[in-house]
Amino acid sequence: MLFPRTDRCPHGAPLWRVAGLVLIALGGLGGCAAPPPSALAAITAFQARAVLSCLYGVSLEPRGVDPQTGAYHVYRIYVALSDTELLSLPALDSTASDGDIAHHRFYPNMAVYARRAGIPNTRAYREAEAFCLNVVHTYRRTGAVAFHSQPRARRTLVFDVGPSQQVVFAADTADAPNAYWRRFFRTGNRLDNQWYYRIQ
Fold first, then answer.
1. Spans of all domains in the chain
2. How confident is the prediction along the chain (200 residues), in pLDDT tens digits per residue?
3. How many helices, marked H, and strands, marked E, lie in the chain?
């Protein structure tokens, strides 16, 4: 795993293409030296990587599967306030009412997030709510099981796409924060200049 678990332990563009990438990449994770042409084609077609920026410094893990919908159940998201400080926020979806949100265990942390993000008090709740909705919405559209990002990894995202299988997005490998990442980006299974895959 690229990131240690810290606790047993995003609007707009067509992120279904990331889901296509993830599913196609899974077909090519069987140890072949070169990624399949279909995976490269999916990456070439993907035009909205900037949308992933809302996931920087955020991690999310599901806690089982909703038996009614078959979707992964997500209760909270982890936001890195610094290299050593994580804040738990409610994992919201569009069906959550104000009452549901207000009774969520991590509702009080939304004010903490807004304050640390420099959001004025008059907009604190709505902007924190929009952030939580955006993260969960983007996560759902990627088709990944979970994702991880931490400040020390800068603009690098790790998506769990299956048992022991990960797809890694690096906005700029020159930003690799340490020897591990420099070695991984140099020698890892590269799909293109920004996407890699890993079998654990």
1. 16-199
2. 333 333 333 333 333 334 333 333 333 434 444 544 444 444 444 434 447 788 888 998 888 887 877 778 889 999 988 878 899 999 998 888 999 999 999 999 999 999 999 999 999 999 999 999 999 988 887 777 888 887 667 788 888 877 777 888 888 888 887 888 889 888 878 877 788 888 77
3. 6, 8
Radius of gyration for the chain, computed over Cα atoms and rounded to the nearest angstrom? 17
Distance CA 32, CA 55 (A): 29
Per the DSSP assignment, residues forming a β-bridge with 59 are 78
Please choose, from the candidates 84, 82, 87, 91, the residue with its C-alpha nearest in 3D space to the C-alpha of residue 61. Answer: 91
CB 23 within 8 A of CB 112: no
Q: Are 40 and 190 in contact (CB under 8 A)?
A: no
User: pTM of the prediction?
Assistant: 0.72
Contact 109, 75 (CB under 8 A): no
Please, are residues 196 and 186 in contact by the beta-carbon 8 Å criterion? Answer: no
